[in-house]
Amino acid sequence: xxxxxxxxxxxxxxxxEEFSVKGGVLTINKKAIIDHLMDDDRLASxxxxxxxxxxxxxxxxxxxxxxxxxxxxxxxxxxxxxxxxVDTVGEGSTLVLDGAAVVTTGRLIAxxxxxxxxxxxxxxxxxxxxxxxxxxxxxxxEGLENHxxxxxxxxxxxxxxxxxxxxxxxxxxxADKVESYExxxxxxxxxxxxxxxxxxxxxxxxxxxxxxxxxxxxxDAKKIIPSVINATEVMDGAICSGNCVSAxxxxxxxxxxxxxxxxxxxAQHGKxxxxxxxxxxxxxxxxxxxxxxxxxxxxxxxxxGAKGVIITEEGYGNPDSDLCLNVNKCEALGMSTVVIADEAxxxxxxxxxxxxxxxxxTAFVSCGNVNEMLEVPAMKKVIGFIESIAHVSGGAAESxxxxxxxxxxxxxxxxxxxxxxxxxxxxxxx
Length: 430
Fold this sequence. Notes:
The chain is α/β, with parallel strands linked by helices. Helix content is 21%, strand content 31%. The chain contains eight helices and 24 strands. The protein has a five-stranded parallel beta sheet with strand order 18-14-19-20-21, sandwiched between helices. Strands 8-9-1-13 form a four-stranded mixed beta sheet. A four-stranded mixed beta sheet has the order 5-12-10-7. The chain is globular, with a radius of gyration of 21 Å.
């Protein structure tokens, strides 16, 4: 499987009559986007706003972030099972509007979404203060059942991202950069680089139910058994976020496309490691599910001949048990593990970082303490609804001050402790 990402650099976004990219400026037709999304009868209204780095703008509550992409060549569209057919992605060529992002906000389900500040101290902790953001302000129909409400907002972000990219494809574009990634068939991959250690990436996905879902080829990941997929598939939209979790370690759809573990393993492939692929796996809420998934994961890694296994988590608390089981079972089969996760150590940092622990976890990369407190100033503009801080994990009604400033936990900021390592937070062992 060979995937080419044709990246068009976006420095600014503006509204206009036509869709185009000229001199780094992405021009979009606001009405066309709204009309495209309003064919979903679950949405009562849609608005589109823009937010650029450095502006005194706050976006909240944020549901998801999606990079505008579409296929140039290939048998399917990006985000298979969601937008495209349920067919394999990860090969052919894909248009990427690099630097742009579709951000969904609005009247979301009450609990647990987050904040993006485009400037100030909060901006230092989220990658989306650096992206040029097309913000969808969504208002689902009153009385809509919660799962349908969540689906309407999730699909709006994916649909808008693909639609915008498709319009640029039609209008014509010149890529500023083309990145190529190749994943050989497993028969060839297993025989390659015999002198290098084989490495597999166990990719834990939020699947705790109650709207804590992640989708693999359009299927809720808690309904699948772990299997090996090529990293190029994930880079081409095979995994989409659909969860309402603490914002800090939410792996947005944008994060799935830009996983730094994948990028670094590709960079080291054939040099220091033989990177064999990824195992997307669930985080079950029952012990039997945790045991089943972790056993499958360890067995698959062993059958591939892995010497090393990198494990990333999504969420904290209950998923910490899945994390420890994955470590235990891989280590018991002779494979060395490295964990990337955040910690919930209390506002003073003195509590146990994980809800579970195991002595086999000897290599741990910390993405920071979700409970760390942060003061963020008032902004000139709020896109969305600032009063939602009362329901955001890491915030409360009293977090919002009369002047518009807030005192919140780090976990209220989207991507601040992202457990793929795409963050600017960490911890020192003391």
